[in-house]
Amino acid sequence: MSVPPSNFDQRPSLAADTVARAELSPLSFLVRSADVWSERPAIAHTNIVQTYAEHHDRVRQVCGALHGELKLEEGARVAVLLPNVPEMLELHYAVPGASGVLVPLNTRLTGSDYAYILDHCGARLLIAYEPLREVVDEARGRLGSRAPEVMWVEPGRRGDWNQMVSSGELVDLRMPADENTLLSLNYTSGTTGRPKGVMTTHRGAFLHSLGVIAEAGLSARSSYLWTLPMFHCNGWAYTWAVTAAGAQHVALSEIDPALIWRAVLGERVTHLCAAPTVVVMMLNAPEATRCPHEVKLFVGGAPPAPALLERAAALNIAVTHLYGLTETYGPICVCAWNPAWDEAAADEQARRRARQGVATLVSQPLRVVDRDMRDVPRDGATIGEVVMRGNNVMLGYYRDPAATEAAFAGGWFHSGDLGVVHPDGYIELRDRLKDVVISGGENISTIELEQALLEHPMIAEAAVVGAPDERWGEVPVAFVTVAGAGAPAPDELRQFMRARVARFKVPKRFERVDALPKTGTGKIQKFLLREQVRQEPQ
Amino acid sequence: MSVPPSNFDQRPSLAADTVARAELSPLSFLVRSADVWSERPAIAHTNIVQTYAEHHDRVRQVCGALHGELKLEEGARVAVLLPNVPEMLELHYAVPGASGVLVPLNTRLTGSDYAYILDHCGARLLIAYEPLREVVDEARGRLGSRAPEVMWVEPGRRGDWNQMVSSGELVDLRMPADENTLLSLNYTSGTTGRPKGVMTTHRGAFLHSLGVIAEAGLSARSSYLWTLPMFHCNGWAYTWAVTAAGAQHVALSEIDPALIWRAVLGERVTHLCAAPTVVVMMLNAPEATRCPHEVKLFVGGAPPAPALLERAAALNIAVTHLYGLTETYGPICVCAWNPAWDEAAADEQARRRARQGVATLVSQPLRVVDRDMRDVPRDGATIGEVVMRGNNVMLGYYRDPAATEAAFAGGWFHSGDLGVVHPDGYIELRDRLKDVVISGGENISTIELEQALLEHPMIAEAAVVGAPDERWGEVPVAFVTVAGAGAPAPDELRQFMRARVARFKVPKRFERVDALPKTGTGKIQKFLLREQVRQEPQ
Predict the structure, then answer these.
(1) Residue of B4, B338, B399 with shortest CB distance to A76
(2) Which comes out higher in pLDDT, residue A44 or A10?
(3) Residue B6 scores a pLDDT above 50
(4) What is d(CA B289, CA A333) in angstroms, rounded to the nearest whole number?
(5) What residues does CATH 2.30.38.10 cover in chain B?
(6) Confidence at residue A12, expressed as pLDDT on a 0 to 100 scale
């Protein structure tokens, strides 16, 4: 028996193209929430709360200013250099809503970084935080006549930016004519060189936001605390997801454990995302109290340590581990908690929670592949590179076809992260591809060595890189900073490591430094350490 | 100052088309859940539970049977006539996953209806429930040589369908090459004439499912009870949303309050959708007990009455009112509960909860418009027609360009439902467009008259239609069935109504009937009553 299609005619009329389709855009979330949740709190900052109606009006005033006073043209880049102030949230809607492209800048970069990015993205307008005037002026000095106009945001809704906006007309957000339109350029932090401009789209941001809502369980009763900077991958899409749910944004423009705890308890915070250092700071603060309601905390960047998970649980805080990159709109991978693990022993739970996990609901399955793009076995041991594709993978690097082509080799985005796949399909990272040391044909994970070094009570920080070696190709070299006054002797460290890792992995040299080189976001710049060891005599 | 775009270059490489894009399809949900939630329960039915891994394997076997034994071609329609048995859920994935188009049939239609739909959709295969053999055979008899092959599902996983499937090879689900590919044809219930085949797509179903997850708050800890037939708009997309969340499906193939309560308590049900009559039956059952955990109940079709809401609250059941049509993938509108209303008086809460509400997160805003497509004022009084557009509006009616064009007049889908918009933007339905009676230039809502009639203790059911009238154009005529042995006299009813509605609205005639004509889904067929009054002397 066969079942052929007979006179199959799927699209009966052109009308379906307008009636049965709308271009996906996160801008639609604000328009809806301004109507449905008009009198509900949209954003609380210091002691000011704006309702969704007020917030929406403000965004429309920004659109009015961009259209009217600034005559923004379609596709023009608008750079923003702001901490988590309400103006930053507004610009996440107003710039794309005025058909522009948002370029959020990390507040901890140097004048030279800003000059590079501003020049590269071609922004003619920069909206910047007045307390950062010095570094902005340095960047402008470097750019000379190519420098963008700057408008300033001062704390407390002051500065010429706010002045101009408050006299602007209200102009409705304009939906993109095509959902694949560029929404933002998010520059990478440059651990491996110059920052690259990651291109995200309205479609990607819309879908990523729905994934966030599904994973985080956001609703109109939620209250989201901003400690994660909105300039990081547009705040992992929470800028849009929180608004979509009609939940409240609680914006902190600085990281202060006392402020965090006051907000958690006073604003009844239910959700937050944070970097590992912020989590540690928060959980160990003297203000830390058991929350009367469960708080969902999402952490990315490093696996949460067992002690931290235990402390969080005691405070009624449920920690979820996420993983992603700027190139994947932030977290594309979640350590989805299986209810069956509720009954596991604490150390088993901690081990499971430390894994990076699985692709989110709106993401394509992640793969871990060998050099020939073959999937590694699900054995929790074979290391491969994590590669991604799908709607929440960037369009490419802005004005950098060579880097894009390299990153998209074989039709997948190459994360540069190395990991294993456990038998249950959960991914666990082992190292950065570029950070791995290949010694005598063996891959040595520098993360493993760094974690072992950190077990030594006198060591505060550790970074391991490969140094050229005539016999082995490369050998691991460790850089450490120490916690107190004293310092362990290299021989002592060598013995210490031998007790912990395979002999071939033990670093050949241990160098004590006062500080490790870091990016504006606090990531260790291993490429600088590698340059250093390359210049040293072997 | 102006901000022009300089050398704006959005798409750097063709690679982005494969790396930065995946076609949206709800099939991806099952593939993910089979991996992430492999050992978790997917579906419980009678005393059998299948895990997601087992359920996925079964779906792949069905794909294998469709490809292998049945040689299904791309785009071929496969009709299914099944209650909520596991086979029905499997076919929601396997048919589109084998590149076919699913045609779910209502189990309560007549042989003549089935003959019409099967002929119209051109299905060459029907998978049917063996207990419905008589009516299926009648349909086949009518179709003669044009009748499709039938394979039978018998209760308890028996019948030739299950026999063939269980010997089939496992074939992976095939994702659509284009997300706008047809996924299913859902025939309307035909209150106004012949059933029409509503065309839904993979993209629409994917987005609608994400909307369901956001509104219902589904998670891997949820357990969803099937009382709503899956053949109704593919179970309002819960067929896909529950699977996406890694939640458990609990399938009841018949509606029985004792079974419902056993499932709610025994399977720890957290969510269910139900028709108003099922809700009433459930809440008034002798087995009704206060649930130890909150149950979210979604009801569509008629506003929940205040007494019902009160009873539900006492049982720890939170009721949400939804509204939609087959043409909008089921509910496109939700009475989103504003936390600010928690403190309102009970009658105020009931009034708010009875409204149809606002467009869901993934939907375009609904409009209520006059004949010239102008929005009615938000005054809670001016009646207009509800119109929709967007990703969860059908592509059109299958093989019916004329009906599609009529439904899509002015670039919006015309629901045929009449309603008002309240000042807060919430929509409340007043009547069906075709059911309104226009008398002396005044619109008379037949719903209003029917509700007033139902307040009479002797009246069980009421239906009001317009009869032609020389002087007034139309006049309302009421058809009623009575509850007990006696019946109120027409004059008594006239007095009764005069005390309740404006004089011009009082029905000119009251006709007592033994039963009202109804569709297979229990909707009153007013067009038959209208035909009747048109043939009667005025």
Answers:
(1) B4
(2) A44
(3) no
(4) 41
(5) 362-427
(6) 46
CATH class given for the domain over B439-535: alpha beta
Mention the CATH class of domain A438-535. Answer: alpha beta
Q: Which amino acid is at A281?
A: M
pLDDT at B471 over 90: no
Residues in contact with B399: Cβ distance below 8 Å, sequence separation at least 6, in sequence order: A7, A9, A12, B120, B197
Beta strand B41-45 with B48-51 is antiparallel
Alpha-carbon Rg for chain A, nearest whole angstrom, is: 24
- pLDDT tens, position by position, B143-160: 999 999 999 999 999 999
Would you identify the CATH topology of the domain A27-254? Rossmann fold (3.40.50)
The answer to whether residues B14 and A408 touch, using CB atoms and an 8 Å cutoff, is no
Identity (one letter) of the amino acid at B264? V
Q: At what angle do helices B27-36 and B86-97 cross, to 10 degrees?
A: 120
Distance CA A27, CA A237 (A): 12
> Which residue in A has a C-alpha nearest to residue B199's C-alpha?
A10
The dihedral through the CA atoms of A38, A39, A42, A43 has a sign that is positive
- For residue B301, the model assigns a pLDDT of 74
For residue B519, give the amino acid letter.
T
Tell which residue, B208, B194, B281, has the closest CA to residue B240.
B208
- Rounded Cα distance, B299 and B297, in Å: 6
Contact A396 B18 (CB under 8 A): no
The CATH number, out of the four listed (3.40.1280.10, 3.40.50.970, 3.40.50.12780, 3.30.460.10), of the domain defined by the range A273-435: 3.40.50.12780
Give me B521's structure tokens.
């889904």
Cβ of B412 within 8 Å of Cβ of A19? The answer is yes
Residue type, B185: L
Tell me how far apart the alpha carbons of residues B494 and A436 are, in angstroms, rounded to a whole number: 89
Nearest by Cα to A273 from A246, A299, A240, A295: A299
Homologous superfamily in CATH for domain B362-427: Luciferase; Domain 3 (2.30.38.10)
B residues 143-182 near A, CB within 8 Å? 149, 181-182
Best of B19, B200, B356, B358 to mutate (most A CBs within 10 Å, chain A): B19
Cα–Cα distances in Å, from A345 out to A222, A340, A341?
30, 12, 9
A217 CB near a chain B CB, below 8 Å? yes
Kindly state whether B72 is in contact with chain A, defined as any CB-CB distance less than 8 angstroms.
Answer: yes
Task: Using a CB–CB cutoff of 8 Å, tell me whether A18 touches chain B.
Answer: yes
Q: Name the segment(s) of chain A with CATH classification 3.40.50.12780.
A: 27-254, 273-435
Residues constituting chain B: 538
Nearest CB among A2, A29, A124 relative to B71 is that of A2
Question: What is the reported pTM?
Answer: 0.87
All CATH 3.30.300.30 domain ranges of chain B, comma separated, are 439-535
In percent, the amount of chain A with pLDDT more than 90 equals 71
Residues B42-75 pLDDT 10s? 999 988 999 999 999 999 999 999 998 889 999 9
pLDDT of res. A14: 56
Q: Please, are residues B507 and B463 in contact by the beta-carbon 8 Å criterion?
A: no
Give the mean pLDDT of B77-96.
98
How far apart are the C-alpha atoms of A153 and A45, rounded to whole Å? 15
**CATH number for the domain running over B27-299:** 3.40.50.12780
In chain A, the residue whose alpha carbon lies closest to the alpha carbon of B149 is: A1
A&B contacts, CB < 8 Å? 267
Residue B535 pLDDT exceeds 90:
no
State whether B32 and A358 contact (CB < 8 Å).
yes
pLDDT tens digits along A464-514 = 999 988 888 889 999 998 877 788 999 999 999 998 888 888 999 999 998
ipTM for the predicted complex comes to: 0.87
- How distant, in Å, are the alpha carbons of A226, A228, B471 from that of A235? 8, 6, 66
**Chain A contact for B71 (CB, 8 A cutoff):** yes
Residue, of B435 and B39, whose pLDDT is higher: B39
* A50: its two tokens: 């704006």
